[in-house]
Write a structure and sequence with these properties.
The chain has helices spanning 15-24, 31-39, 59-68, 111-114, 122-126; strands at residues 8-9, 43-46, 53-56, 78-83, 88-93, 101-105, 116-119. The protein is of the alpha+beta class and 132 residues long. The chain has one domain: SMI1/KNR4-like, CATH 3.40.1580.10. Strand 4 (78-83) and strand 5 form a beta hairpin. The longest helix has 10 residues, at 15-24.
């Protein structure tokens, strides 16, 4: 999936891990996201722009976030699936019809100030992973 790119991969998610994530998710998951998890259930690599780096969270970790509502009190409508490893989360904007990908500062709860666009959808986002 990310052949020829700078990506530190780990073993792919199991069908049970994907099923648990689908059950916990507030939206139907983009199939490209599922394919990425099946390829690498976690991992990391650069992005060509802000937030400059991407750490993919494993499926079970994202499932736990969803069950616990870890981000929803202060960041409603954002399905967090990764970070930059330094305080900024990467998420799917569930309120956006195209499910745009955004990043935000987890210490700034002013959504108008904190949430920044990253890609128009998950397919476009995957096109950025592993590039500098």
């Amino acid at each position: 999936m990310l052949e020829g790119r700078d990506w530190v991969a780990v073993a792919g998610a199991t069908p049970d891990e994907i099923a648990a994530l689908r059950a916990a998710a507030p939206i139907p998951l983009p199939e490209t996201y599922v394919a990425l998890l099946e390829f690498s259930n976690g991992g990391e690599g650069p992005l060509p722009g802000q937030p400059c780096y991407f750490c993919l969270y494993p499926a079970l970790e994202v499932s736990k976030f969803e069950r616990d509502g870890a981000f929803y009190e202060f960041f409603p409508g954002l399905f967090v699936f990764g970070s930059n490893g330094g305080g900024e989360a990467v998420a799917i904007d569930t309120a956006d019809a195209d499910r745009r990908i955004v990043y935000f500062d987890t210490t700034n709860i002013d959504l108008d100030e904190s949430v920044q666009p990253l890609a128009e959808n998950f397919d476009a986002f995957v096109g950025l992973i592993g590039l500098e």
